[in-house]
Design goal:
Blueprint lengths: L3 H21 L9 H9 L7 H23 L4 H27 L7 H26 L1
């Protein structure tokens, strides 16, 4: 049985999938509207409509199942590939987050730079490294 990082990753992907379904049906929590949600989550104004969010939800759901399959049986080749891709994606997002935190300019008091620096980037880097460590065992 695999240790916790991959298990946490599978749960995180499942939760993200459900959140994207929630946004896909028109909800905007934790923001007041779609524009505010977009600015907080991505730092720019983009659509959070179903055409964007529902394919992401499906991708995250499939990835969650793949990572969970790895948790159940680390010898399964496809599950190892999915889990490796998940770890690589986390580390890539973390690296981009570091670049944004260092070189991004935002004196407007917007929420995204703070969320990026204090939540998104550390979570992606920490979990990505932990999942890689799981894969190396």
């Amino acid at each position: 049985m695999v240790v916790g990082a991959a298990r946490v990753g599978a749960v995180l992907l499942a939760v993200l999938s459900l959140v994207h379904v929630y946004w896909g049906v028109g909800a905007t929590w934790p923001a007041a509207d779609e524009r505010g949600l977009s600015l907080a989550v991505l730092g720019s104004v983009v659509s959070f409509g179903p055409v964007v969010t529902l394919p992401l939800a499906v991708l995250e759901g499939v990835a969650s199942a793949g990572v969970y399959a790895y948790v159940r049986d680390p010898r399964r080749r496809i599950a190892r590939l999915v889990t490796g891709a998940f770890a690589a994606g986390l580390l890539l997002r973390g690296a981009v987050g570091v670049v944004w935190a260092v070189f991004g300019k935002d004196g407007s008091g917007a929420v995204f730079p703070w969320l990026n620096a204090l939540v998104y980037t550390p979570l992606c880097l920490g979990l990505g490294l932990a999942v890689l460590r799981d894969l190396r065992r």
